[in-house]
């Protein structure tokens, strides 16, 4: 344990990730696994505000929107077909 960092926190995050993969997402492709991990990490790290109170869902949405402005994810990136042409 070092300050607020300890194994219980990681085990809690791991439990939430496994529950999300098995229950919410159901079929996770290894190619996209880092995106699911990023989403769960974001949720876990933003679950409480600066005063220690649980954040309402609306605040989670506002934080997420503020971080995606100017970023673009294309269909070819999602499907893993970056750089392929119609002939491929």
Describe this structure in words.
This protein has 4 helices and no strands. By secondary structure, it is an all-alpha fold. It has one domain.
User: How far apart lie the N and C ends?
Assistant: 52 Å
Uncertain regions spanning at least 5 consecutive residues: none
**Radius of gyration over C-alpha positions, nearest whole angstrom:** 17 Å
Give the overall shape: extended
Question: How would a textbook summarize the main sheet?
Answer: none
User: How many domain modules?
Assistant: 1
- What is the N-to-C order of secondary-structure elements (H for helix, E for strand)? HHHH
Class derived from helix and strand content: mainly alpha
Helix-residue proportion? 55-70%
Helix tally equals 4
Instruction: Tell me the fraction of residues in β-strands, as a range.
Output: under 5%
Beta strands, count = 0
List the helices and strands and how they pair.
Layout: H1 7-25, H2 33-45, H3 57-68, H4 75-79
Could you write a compact summary of the structure shown?
The protein has 88 residues and is an all-alpha fold.
Features:
88 residues; mainly alpha; 4 helices; extended
């Amino acid at each position: 344990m070092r300050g607020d960092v300890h194994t219980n926190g990681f085990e809690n995050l791991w439990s939430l990730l496994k529950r999300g993969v098995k229950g919410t997402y159901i079929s996770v492709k290894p190619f996209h696994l880092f995106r699911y991990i990023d989403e769960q990490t974001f949720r876990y790290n933003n679950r409480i505000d600066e005063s220690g109170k649980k954040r309402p869902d609306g605040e989670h949405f506002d934080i997420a929107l503020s971080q995606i402005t100017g970023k673009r994810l294309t269909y070819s990136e999602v499907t893993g077909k970056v750089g392929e042409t119609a002939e491929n």
